[in-house]
Design a protein that fits this description.
Layout lengths: L1 H27 L3 H27 L6 H19 L3 H23 L4 H21 L5 E2 L17 H22 L2 H11 L1 H6 L4 H27 L1 E2 L1 H5 L1 H14 L5 H21 L6 H16 L4 H17 L26 E12 L2 E12 L3 E5 L6 H8 L7 E6 L2 E2 L5 H7 L1 E3 L12 H9 L6 H14 L15 H14 L4 E5 L7 H16 L3 E5 L3 H7 L2 E6 L2 E6 L1 H4 L3 H15 L2
Parallel strand pairs: 5-10, 5-11, 8-9, 9-10
Antiparallel strand pairs: 1-2, 3-4, 3-6, 6-7, 11-12
Helix pairs in contact: 1-6, 2-6, 2-7, 2-9, 2-11, 2-12, 3-4, 3-5, 3-9, 3-11, 4-9, 6-9, 7-9, 11-12, 11-13, 12-13, 17-18, 17-19, 18-19
Bound molecules: adenosine-5'-triphosphate.
Adenosine-5'-triphosphate binds next to strand 4 and helix 15.
C-alpha cells in the first residue's frame, strides 16, 4: 500500500512539473506563435490521452476519434455563432456531445473485433466530413467578441489559452490516473490482454468498454471545443479529418499505449519537434509535420513496437533482474491434503448444475449432441473422453463462452442458458482453461485481483480476497512477479487462484495438470483435494486417468459429442465401451 501511495505521489509530482515547465516556457518566450503552440500542445496531449483511455487500455484500435473531436469543435462553434453561447459552457457541452456520440458509435461497433472494428471506426469521421459539408457547415468562423473577450474565452495574451488548455490537460490526466489505478482501468487492461478470460472471470467487458468510450469521447469533445476556440475557424476536414485520429493514435503509440505516460511522452517529444520544424522550415518543406509523424511511427515500429515507455520499462526491469537474480521462490502448499479415496464425499443431494439435452453444431459437425447430466453440490465430477470428444465445447457452453444450438443449462435452479460469461461467473461458476489464459503484463496478484472484483464489496476487499486466494494455492511468494514471466505450474496455480478469488460454487477445470511434471501435478492435485474437502463443487476435464480416478467422485464420459456413460470411477473405468472408445485394452489390463 505504501508503495502504491508513493507511486501516486510520484505521478502527481511529474504532472505538476510538466505543467510548471509548460508555463515557464511560455513566460520565457516573447514569440506569440510559440505561445500559441504551447497552448495547442496540451490539447493534442488531451486527444492522445482520450485515445489511450479507450484504445490504449482496452486494445480496441480506434481510427475514429476525430468524430468525437469534431462534434466538440462544432458544438462550441455553432453554440457561439447561433446562440451566443460562451465557450466556457460550450466546451463542457462539447464534452457531453462527444460522449454521446462516442456511446452511439460504440454500442453497435463493439460487436466487431480487430481490424473490422478499426475500419468501422474510421468510417464514422469520414462520413461526418461529407454530412457536415452537405449541411452547409463547410467553413465557420467564430465571431470576435471584442467587448468582453475573456467572458467568451478570447484573450489578447495567448498565455491565457495555455492556462485553459493546461487546465483541461490536468483534468484529463487526473481522470486517466484514477482510471489506471482503479477496477475500471485494470478491467480494461485485462480485456486488452485476454478478453475471453476477462469475461470468464467476471469482467463485464461490454460495460467497461462503454464507460471507456464515453469518457474518451468526452475528453476528445472538450479538446475539439478548445481547439475551435483557439483556431477561430472550423471546417469539416480540419476537425473530422483522418489526420486528427492519426495524430491521437501516433502520439500514444509512440509514447506507449495502455499507460498514463504514453500520450504525455508522445506529446512532449513529437509536438514541439513537429511544430518547431513547421515554424522554421515549413515554407521550405511543406508537409513537414506529417513527415515527423511518419518517421516517428516507423522508428517506433522498428525500435520499440510497444512504445518508448514500455521499451524503457522492459530495459530497466531486465537490468534489475540480472542484478538481483530474480529466481522463482518455491511454491509452498500450506497444509497436507487428505487422500480423496479415503474421504469420498457424500453428495448433498441438491442439484447444483443441470445440463438438459445440450447440443452444439458447427455446420454439419456435432461437437456436443444431446448431452444431459447433473452435478450435485459438493461432488467432484471428472469429464473424460478422447481428443475431439466435445469436452471443452461442453465447458464453454457451461460458462457461456459459446451458446448451444439447443438445450438448457440450469444453475442453482435458474436457467442461465442465455447469460453472458461474466454473469455466470457472478452467479458462481468459475473456470480455468486448457491453455492458460493469463493477463501477461499484470502481476500475479493483479491477475487474481481481476477475478476477485466480481465478489468484492470494495477495492480493499478485492485485494484481501486476491491475497487469500494466492495463499490457498501457495503462490503468495510470487504475488509481485509479472504473469508473463512465471513457470507453467505457477501459471496454472495463478489461474486457479483467479477463479477461486471470485468465490465460485462450481469450478470448471479444463486439463489443469496439462504440461506439469509428475511432482507438480501431484502438488496441484493435493490443492484440488483440499478445496473439494472444503465443500467446493468441481467439474474437471483431465487426460491423466490416475489423477482422475484419485480425484473424482463420479465420471462423465463423452465420445464424438455424445454422453457415452456416467458413474463411479471404478464402474466407468471397467465399462467395455469406455475401454474401447478411450482407455484402451492396455490400460484396462494394467489396472484390472
Ligand atoms: P481435447 O481433449 O483435444 O481438448 P475436446 O474433447 O475438448 O478435445 P473439443 O475441443 O470440444 O474437444 O472439440 C470437439 C469437436 O468440435 C472437435 O471435432 C473440434 O474440431 C470441433 N470444434 C470445436 N470448436 C470448433 C469451432 N469453433 N468450429 C468448428 N469446429 C469446432
Amino acid at each position: 500500500m505504501e508503495k502504491k501511495r508513493a507511486a501516486l505521489y510520484r505521478s502527481l509530482l511529474i504532472i505538476f512539473a510538466l505543467v510548471a515547465l509548460c508555463l515557464l516556457l511560455s513566460f520565457a518566450t516573447n514569440n506569440n506563435y510559440y505561445r500559441l503552440m504551447l497552448a495547442v500542445i496540451p490539447i493534442w496531449a488531451v486527444l492522445g490521452i482520450s485515445w489511450n483511455v479507450f484504445s490504449g487500455y482496452s486494445g480496441l484500435i480506434s481510427f475514429g476519434h476525430a468524430a468525437f473531436f469534431g462534434v466538440g469543435a462544432y458544438t462550441v462553434t455553432l453554440g457561439l455563432v447561433n446562440f451566443g453561447l460562451t465557450p466556457w459552457i460550450g466546451v463542457p457541452l462539447g464534452a457531453i456531445v462527444g460522449a454521446l456520440t462516442a456511446g452511439l458509435i460504440g454500442i453497435p461497433t463493439f460487436r466487431l473485433r480487430g481490424v473490422y472494428f478499426a475500419l468501422a471506426m474510421l468510417a464514422y469521421p469520414l462520413s461526418m466530413v461529407y454530412v457536415f459539408d452537405w449541411l452547409g457547415l463547410q467553413e465557420i468562423t467564430l465571431p470576435m467578441m471584442r467587448e468582453n473577450g475573456p467572458a467568451y474565452m478570447q484573450f489578447t495574451d495567448n498565455r491565457w489559452y495555455q492556462v485553459v488548455s493546461l487546465s483541461l490537460f490536468i483534468v484529463a490526466i487526473l481522470t486517466c490516473l484514477f482510471i489506471e489505478r482503479s477496477r475500471f482501468g485494470r478491467s480494461l487492461l485485462a480485456i486488452k490482454q485476454n478478453e475471453l478470460a476477462a469475461e470468464a472471470c467476471g469482467v463485464d467487458t461490454f460495460k467497461w468498454k462503454l464507460y471507456a468510450i464515453l469518457i474518451s469521447g468526452a475528453m476528445a469533445g472538450a479538446a475539439g471545443g478548445l481547439f475551435a476556440v483557439i483556431q477561430l475557424v472550423v471546417t469539416p476536414a480540419s476537425v473530422f479529418g483522418l489526420v486528427i485520429s492519426a495524430q491521437a493514435m501516433i502520439l500514444t503509440l509512440f509514447g506507449g499505449a495502455g499507460i498514463i505516460w504514453g500520450p504525455v511522452i508522445g506529446a512532449a517529444v513529437l509536438l514541439p519537434l513537429s511544430e518547431t520544424l513547421h515554424a522554421e522550415l515549413g515554407h521550405l518543406v511543406p508537409g513537414i509535420t506529417g513527415m515527423v509523424y511518419g518517421a516517428a511511427i516507423i522508428l517506433v515500429m522498428v525500435l520499440a513496437p510497444e512504445g518508448i515507455y514500455w521499451r524503457i520499462n522492459d530495459l530497466l526491469k531486465r537490468r534489475k533482474v540480472s542484478e538481483t537474480g530474480d529466481a522463482p521462490a518455491p511454491v509452498a502448499v500450506s497444509s497436507r491434503a487428505p487422500a480423496m479415496h479415503e474421504t469420498r464425499r457424500a453428495r448433498s443431494g441438491e442439484v447444483l448444475l443441470g445440463v438438459d439435452n445440450i447440443s452444439k453444431f458447427y455446420g454439419g459437425l456435432g461437437a456436443v449432441k444431446e448431452v444431459g447430466f447433473e452435478i450435485h453440490t459438493g461432488e467432484i465430477v471428472g469429464v473424460i473422453g478422447p481428443n475431439g470428444a466435445g469436452k471443452t465445447t461442453l465447458f464453454n457452453i457451461l460458462n457461456g463462452l459459446i451458446q448451444p444450438s439447443s438445450g438448457r443449462v440450469v444453475f442453482n435452479g435458474i436457467d442461465i442458458t442465455s447469460l453472458k460469461p461474466n454473469r455466470r461467473c457472478a452467479a458462481g461458476i468459475g473456470r480455468t482453461f486448457q491453455v492458460v489464459r493469463s493477463f501477461p503484463r499484470m502481476t500475479v496478484e493483479e491477475n487474481v485481483l481481476i477475478g476477485a472484483y466480481v465478489r468484492a464489496e470494495n477495492e480493499g476487499d478485492a485485494w484481501r480476497r486476491a491475497a487469500e486466494a494466492l495463499g490457498t494455492v501457495g503462490l503468495t511468494g510470487r504475488a509481485h512477479a509479472l504473469a508473463g514471466s512465471i513457470s507453467t505450474k505457477e501459471l496454472r496455480l495463478m489461474e486457479l487462484a483467479r477463479a477461486l478469488a471470485g468465490d465460485p460454487r462450481l469450478l470448471l477445470l479444463d486439463e489443469p495438470l496439462a504440461g506439469l511434471g509428475a511432482d507438480e501435478a501431484s502438488e496441484l492435485t493435493d490443492i484440488l483435494k483440499r478445496l473439494a474437502s472444503g465443500g467446493l463443487t468441481i467439474a474437471i476435464i483431465e487426460h491423466t486417468m490416475q489423477a482422475m480416478v484419485d480425484l473424482a467422485d463420479r465420471m462423465i464420459v463423452l465420445d464424438h459429442g455424445v454422453l457415452l456413460t456416467e458413474g463411479a470411477p471404478e464402474q466407468v473405468t471397467r465399462d467395455p465401451h469406455v475401454i474401447e472408445a478411450y482407455l484402451g485394452r492396455k490400460w484396462a489390463a494394467k489396472h484390472a
